[in-house]
Write the structure tokens for this entry.
Amino acid sequence: MTVTGLPGAAGRRPGRPHIVCFGNEKGGSGKSTTAMHVVVALLRDGHRVATLDLDARQGTLSRFLANRAASGMSLAMPVHRAIERSARDSVATAAAEEADRLDRTLAELADQEFIVVDTPGNDSNLMRLGHARADTLITPLNDSFVDLDLLAHVDAAGQRVLYPSLYAEMVWEQKKQRAQRDGGSIDWIVMRNRLATLDARNKRRVGGLIEQLAKRIGFRLAPGFSERVIFRELFLKGLTLLDLAESGTEMTLSHVAARQELRGLLDTIGLVPAAARKVG
């Protein structure tokens, strides 16, 4: 497996929105939080941005944006849509209905430059549809052997990758389908998220295994966020690290460190290099 698309801004195709999809098959990895930071970075860089919540039942991204709209501050907002799961009894009919809903929504958002998609944290038709339509796929991964199992199975000693997981195989299948459908490619980025502050032995072992896997199944690695209370506080207000100045939040060393982590993430994703320079 190899990455066939150009990373970052170089991979954007003129005349159509660039779709950035956040996905994995486990909840609690920080998909919605990371998606919001990328959305605000794009907005601050002057782009037209839409957001699409494919996990309407959980609705974390939708609630994040609702909190932002209710903040009382003059904050940049994307155009937002959410797609519900089909209630049809037939699996095939439900899948077709969901695909139609998604494609019609994407057509409505065709005047946007970016569409940021948040997917369910479980294997479902809508999750797969979101992945299949991605130009950039970002998979946040909590830094543990439990979450590494999302991407690959490793030996009992935690030293060697045995074979890719069902999720990795699913992404590879969606990449093939995307190439067959419109000749496009998916730039897959895995970000190690909620990193422990201590340089523990397991942290180094997980990092080494992910690097092995990146070469084997074709994704890029991005730095993620350390575990910080600030992210839970920001969610309640609908804010991101990029909004701290406007919100009048008193900066702490933890905030500064978190903004440095955000800068590293945006640099690696490569879609908004100017926005990266506006952080901090």
